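Task card 7
Instruction: Convert sequence to structure tokens.
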Amino acid sequence: MTSPSPRPDLQTYTRLLCDDALFVVASAQRFDPALLAEVARRRVSSHEPLMRAESPELPSWQDHAVAMCATLAPLAPPPWLPMSELIESITLEAGARGVRSLFTSKPSERQVQRTRLLAATALRYLTATMAADAPLDDEERLLRRCLASGFGLPAQDVTALLDEEAAALEPVDPGAGLDNKLARSMAYGLWLAGMRDGLDPKEESTITQACVNLGLGPDATEAARKDARTRLDARGALAVASVDAIRYVLADDPENASKAASAAARLGLAPVHRTETTAAIDQGAPVVLARRHSLDSAGRQACLAMAWLAALATDPPVSRLGELALRHDRVASDIDAKGDGAGVRAQVFGLVQEHLSAAAQSLGL
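Output:
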């Protein structure tokens, strides 16, 4: 008697859950089970149609990134996304704010109008910055889509913003409600965007003018610049370690290893820092554990979580889990987290299992 085959709809859901969770951990660079649970809850309505489809077509990397930025907007906007701090302050995805939130979740018309004006300024300034040195490339166009999605504006507003071409910087609308904190958030986002692929003098000039338009003086402008540089450089260590961990754990599954490792690299490393890591993924050379990575406690947990999420996304049978767990434990030892592998695996598996059970129940199983 043969055992029943795994259900394709639940296999699809497993992949979606793990891809979403990997996106969150790689973006935030921390393993936060509570955040992952909330993201999974918010993504149910997006996942159900794919689960029920006869031949589901999983979203492209670009579409997945845009959807995840919208989901994370009120929770923890991705730090790699320019203007993430601005999104956190004004996104409509968070619902009503202040006293109004005691009576309704719907944002006020004043709140909507403020977000609309500030989002338009942010996207125009971002576009002008990225287009200062050359026409926008695919990744820069994706950044625009991700940013626009995070504000929680109606679809027609998002479309109108994205349809705008790069233009000369205009002064900020006096009615936009721009305070000093939001101006600094915009300035930081512009420096981050300019530095992602190497800061060109034309981009620097555009950002400097934007900061003047935002009402920031030289000291605030320079502080935003230094902050962007510090944070951009600080993300590299965990991303590189996570790519190695994923590729080691899935060493005998190069296709899935490459997919997950590429996602971790794109979310953790700016293009200017990504070349060597991407080349290693493309070449598929074996990963040798040689204690090359130095991570703090939070980084070690995030690295192990990403590696195990990449493994579970393949929906491995029980007979394969032992082999994958052994490799995962070797990674833990290599990054000075010996003994932590089992705990991280249990937390990740618990999260996936909880939502798979809920999905099975919703399917009437």
